[in-house]
Amino acid sequence: MSLKETPDEERPRERLLRHGARVLSDAELLAVLLGTGAPGKPVLDLSRELLQPGWAYLSRRTPQELMRVRGLGSAKAAVLSAALEMGYRVEREALSQVRNSHDVVRLVSDLRDRDQEEFRVILLNTKGLVLGVETLFRGGLDRVEVFPREVFRPAIAHSAASIVVAHNHPSGDPGPSRQDRELTRRLEECGDLLGIRVLDHIIVGRSRHMSIHQGELTELR
Questions:
Q1: Long-range contacts (CB closer than 8 Å, 24 or more residues apart) made by 7-12
Q2: DSSP label of 154
Q3: Largest CB tally within 10 Å, which of 80, 127, 141, 190?
Q4: Which of 134, 121, 129, 126 lies closest to 97 in space, CA to CA?
Q5: Average pLDDT of 181-185?
Q6: Cα separation of 50 and 58, whole Å?
Q7: Contacts (Cβ under 8 Å, ≥6 apart) of 212
C-alpha cells in the first residue's frame, strides 16, 4: 500500500504528531524527513532502501553519493545530510564531561568510518568539562601532518586547562606507530611549556581503539 492509499491517521507524519516520534519505525521516521518518494517508488520504499545497510552506513554517505539514489535530489540529500549531522552533534553535546578514554571515543566515534586520516583535539576545562571538539588536520590513507602550534591554538583561545588529541587509522589497526608516539611526546612537551596538559592521545580503528598515554584516561583493550 502506498502512502497515498494509507488512511490519514496511519500516515507517519500524522502518527508522529499524535503520538510522538518514538512510536515510528526507522523507515517511517526517514519517510517523514523525505516527504515524498519518486515515480514508482513510494517514500516508505525509498526509506527502506536507504536504511537497508543501516543508519551508520547512511550517515557516512556524502550528499553527492545520496543524490545518486533515484528519488533523492539535491534538496532531499541536503536535508538528510543535515539531519544526520544534527543527530551526531546532539550526541556529542550530551557528553559534557570526559572521565576516561571511553568518553573520548564516544566523542569522536565517527572517525572509525573515515577513509582518510583526521586529527582532532578535545578541549577541557579544569573539571574535565568539554569546551569543544575541533578537527584540525586531514591527511591521506596512512598519514596526516600535524603542527603542534595549531593543536594548541584553539586550546589557548578557549582557555582550556587540558586537551586530549585523537586521530584515526583507516587501515582499521589502532596500534600506534613510531611517529604517533613521537608526536605525543612533542605535544606533551609543548603542553608543559604552555601550562596545558595533554591527557592522552587516542587512536581510533574500525572496531578497536588504543590509548598511547598512560595517565588519567584508561586504556581501551
A1: 12/44
A2: H
A3: 80
A4: 129
A5: 92
A6: 7
A7: 176, 180, 181, 184, 200, 201, 202, 203
Phi-psi region of 9 (alpha: psi -120 to 50; beta: other; left: phi over 0): alpha
Using one digit for the tens of pLDDT, what is the confidence trace for 46-92?
999 999 988 878 887 889 999 999 889 999 999 999 998 888 777 66
Q: Which three cell numbers mark 212? A: 598511547
In sequence order, which residues have a C-beta less than 8 Å from that of residue 213 and are 6 or more positions away?
184, 188, 198, 199, 200, 201
Task: State pTM to two decimals.
Answer: 0.59
Evaluate whether 10 touches 57 at the Cβ level (below 8 Å): no
Q: Could you say which architecture CATH assigns to the domain 96-211?
A: 3-Layer(aba) Sandwich (3.40)
How far does Cα 65 stand from its chain's mean position? 18
Q: Which three cell numbers mark 41?
A: 517508488
Phi and psi, residue 164, nearest 5°? -125, 135
